[in-house]
Each structure stands twice: as C-alpha cells, then as structure tokens.
C-alpha cells in the first residue's frame, strides 16, 4: 500500500482516527454549548469539489452527542464516498432514520461552482434534474449562504443589468482553483436571485421548488476568529492575515487567472429570528427560513407579507407584533385570497448601533410571466433624505462622506432606521412570485483602505476602497391558487 493510500484509509469512515476526530469535534461543541447564552451546533462541512467546482455544503445537527456519535460524517473521496449531493441527501435520510434526530444542509460559494450549484436540467454527474432531485433538495437544503469571504452571491450585473447595485463583490474569474475560467453562460447557475427564479420554473414543472431557501451569510474563515467587520478583518486563512502582502498578492492563482487579494470580502453574518438562544429554536428557525444575511454590519431587519398592512401599522415600535398578527414573516408562503387587491409588505430596517446609517430599502421581486419566462424587478420602497426618483424611476445616490486619508466616514447622511408599508403595484394574481428585501448602507471604507493606511501601501488601481454594505432578507413566496 502506498503512502497516499495509507493516508486515505486512515482518514476514511471506519478508521479509528476518523472516529476519534469526529468524537473530539462533537464533544468540543457540547462543551461550549450554553443554552440561552451561547449555542454551539454539532456539524461539519461536506467538501465536494469535483473538477474544482465548489459544491460545499455545511451540515447542521439539531441534536446532542448521544445522537451525533451514532454516526460519522460522509466523505466525498472514492471509494468511501462521492461528490454527488444525492449521496449527502441519502446520508441525511439515514441519520434521521437511525438516530431519530434532525439535520439540514446548506450550500456556500455557488459563485465558484461554474454553474453547477443551481442546475435546471442536468446535474454535474450527467443525471437529470428530476422529481427525486427537486424533492430531496427542497427537503434537505432550506437555507443558502449568499455572502462570504470568497465573494457575494446575491446578484450579478450580467444577469441583472437593470440593477445598479448588482455589481457588488462579485467573484467571477473561474472555479475554486481557477482550473477553468468563467463564461457568461455559467453565471445563471451560481447566483441566489437567479436560483430563486429558477425555483419558480422548476416548481411549475415538478410541483416542488428545490431552490426555496432562506438567506444567510458567514465568513468561511479558517482562523477561528469572528472578524467580519472591515476595520478588524483578519482574513480567510494564514496566507491572508494582516500583512503588507495580502492586498497585493493573489489569494488563488493559476496560469489562467487569479483571485486578487484585494477582492476578498470581510463578510458576513446570518441573523436568525428564534424564540430562544438554543439549538432547537435556532435550528427550527433555519428550517422555516426565518433568517437574513448581512455582509458584516449588525443591521436589524424585519419583513412581513400579508394583504391588510396599512400605513398606521408603522406607528408602533413593535413591528413584529403587527407583522405576525396580520401576515407571515420572511421565509414563508403568502397564501392567495379571494377578491381583488395586491399583497402588502411591512418592512423595518435599523442600522447597526455602532455602524453606518442606511441609504435605502429595496424589494426585489421575481416572477414567472404568462409565457413562463423568468422576470425580475428591483423597487426602491424607502430611503433617507429628501431625494425623489427621476423620470426613469431611479433614486439619486445618497452621497459619500468617506475620507480616504483617514478611512473614516460620518453619519451626516442616511437614516438610522427606515420603515414602510409597500404594496406591489404590478401584482398579477396568476403569476408565481417571490419577494425579498435588500437594505443598503451609506458608503463606508472597505478593509483594503484600512490596510492601505495602516501599512502604507501602494495599491493596484482596480482595488476598491469604498463600498455599500447590505442585508438580504429571506424571501416570501406567492403561489397562485391551484
């Protein structure tokens, strides 16, 4: 047996070293779990990277060590495992049947999958996106990581040319190791907004929407540090920790191209609307998709859909009381109702207490038109200041207070909170649709500007120094009667 074969066998299910490592992970999570104060989930990453196409899933268990230690995580290396997500779904099914526990999975870095993350016809193994596939994906993946260090994955300007804010932290050079460059036809299978639209199309075909997910964010850092803010960004890994070289040198490089160091993103967080700070309550919130993502700031965001919200509902400081009473929260289905009228949405956004003011709140709508074609539109629904949309419906920029010489800004523009009741002015009761909220901050410095000043660096001309951080709610879906 060769050395690589020995290493593979020792790190495979059934090996003592594999079981011991899993036991230590489980016990570490249990040791640090403090219900009501700090929740530590037992879980693992299922690291599928066929052809360098990033199809990673994170697996989260609702349970403690009694159930978790009855199994070991699956691997993707033959002959012990496979990179096909169907293999992961089978493991999840077996876990629940064997232990009586509960589990879920969610993907990240769809923007490095070269179009394989959200297929519509063929999977990367050549199999069809059939009824079994859509049912399993809908069952096991109720959540999606839409933003993290290796790029933001909400939207792309090629897919959403009318969206002036779609060009945000896009990683579109190639796959994870840049062994294959990106082409435009791959992009639709990588970004969350396009996936949500594809989900409507597949639901029309199969009766099940496999891409009905809640939104979340994370760092994906390998430093064990919680550093998602621009001014304390510590990097993806040792090679990207603060130094005079991390901005200037490529993070990943091949003979085909590179992900430049200055394009790494100090992102992000998942916010969860849960009844308690416990494994069970947070897991259940993930399952019902009552989550939202931010690119780093601790923005507060509420989003409810219904049929009867009115302007007077904004008079209360308890937006959630009204929202749950008269409608459904983010992540839910809005049921059709008899009679005329369009859906109404109650939205509340609050700035990070020590962060930047808010520029605007937008509702992103996607739908299937009468011809079965996928459509989208971005609506500005609340904004700061006395701005007004122009003749083309575009809202002027909020302004920019960033001082490039000091890496600072002032909250003399923007608003500390934005609340509104919005009614869809183009509602078609016969069309499948989804709605989600995007909240934009005023411009602030990127971590690159902090590095430039602290380390006295000369930066490449294309390095971005200022950006507008944001939050993304989970969608609310509308399905016509019948």
Automatic annotation (TrEMBL):
<dbReference type="Pfam" id="PF12228">
    <property type="entry name" value="DUF3604"/>
</dbReference>
<dbReference type="InterPro" id="IPR022028">
    <property type="entry name" value="DUF3604"/>
</dbReference>
<protein>
    <recommendedName>
        <fullName>DUF3604 domain-containing protein</fullName>
    </recommendedName>
</protein>
